[in-house]
Amino acid sequence: MTTNSWSRKCACPWFAALVMLGALSALSACSNDSRLDLSDPATGGAGKEQINPGGVRVLNYSPNYIHSFGVTGPRGMNGGGGNMIRGDTDGPGEAGERCCIGIPQPWQPNTSLEIEWELDRSPYDNNLQNGLEVMRAIVTVPEYGPETYGFWAIFLPGDRVKVMVMDGNANGQNSVKTKPADDDPFVVQGVRDDAQTKELLERYR
């Protein structure tokens, strides 16, 4: 037996073992990836969540004209709208639907969004300096079901606001047919953003 042939016979079992080890490592990595996807807490253990596009609508019960608003948050929930006349005795002011915002499925508890809106407290005063302000709040999205019909922002007297995803009124919190009650746990008090208000007034000088 030559030295080369002896070397080949000895090397083959080691080479085969290395190939087998590499294959097992690859399979293990794939298995771990799958488990990570399925156990992702952001998806409720059901694999990757689905982000559905939805329109943005507004109801304005407040006495202020809403120039614009925008929401920012996790999981694709970013969008906005504008040009909402103030509410009166006939009901809330409304604005046409705008596209689009992400609506994640399934709903996850404690999904918080930041909402910012520009309002005019004196909509019939020709001097815009008298009533322009920027408000800000952190809002929580109420529970919604698997069938959704768009995202809504609802502005209320006293610089309060509520957001929701319309879904046929899942959990009793997502109706657009009635004004939110004063004790609605998802109605939030807005706070004036002085820095943004100053910038807004500068634009109109």
Could you please describe the fold and organization of this structure?
The protein has 205 residues and is α+β, with helices and mostly antiparallel strands. The protein has 2 domains: 1-41; 50-203, Immunoglobulin-like. The protein has 2 helices and 10 strands; from the N terminus they run αββββββββββα. It has helices spanning 3-38, 194-203, and strands spanning 50-60, 65-72, 79-84, 93-105, 112-120, 132-140, 151-156, 160-165, 188-189, 191-192. The model is unreliable at 1-45 (pLDDT under 50).
What does this entry show, briefly?
This protein has 205 residues and is of the alpha+beta class.
List the helices and strands and how they pair.
Blueprint: H1 3-38, E1 50-60, E2 65-72, E3 79-84, E4 93-105, E5 112-120, E6 132-140, E7 151-156, E8 160-165, E9 188-189, E10 191-192, H2 194-203
Parallel strand pairs: 1-7
Antiparallel strand pairs: 1-4, 2-3, 2-5, 5-6, 6-10, 7-8, 8-9
Helicity level, as a percent range?
A: 10-25%
Rg, Å, rounded: 28 Å
CATH architecture of the largest domain: Sandwich
Query: Which topology of the largest domain does CATH recognise?
Result: Immunoglobulin-like
The separation of the N and C termini measures 97 Å
Strand content: 35-45%
DSSP strand tally: 10
Poorly predicted residue ranges:
1-45
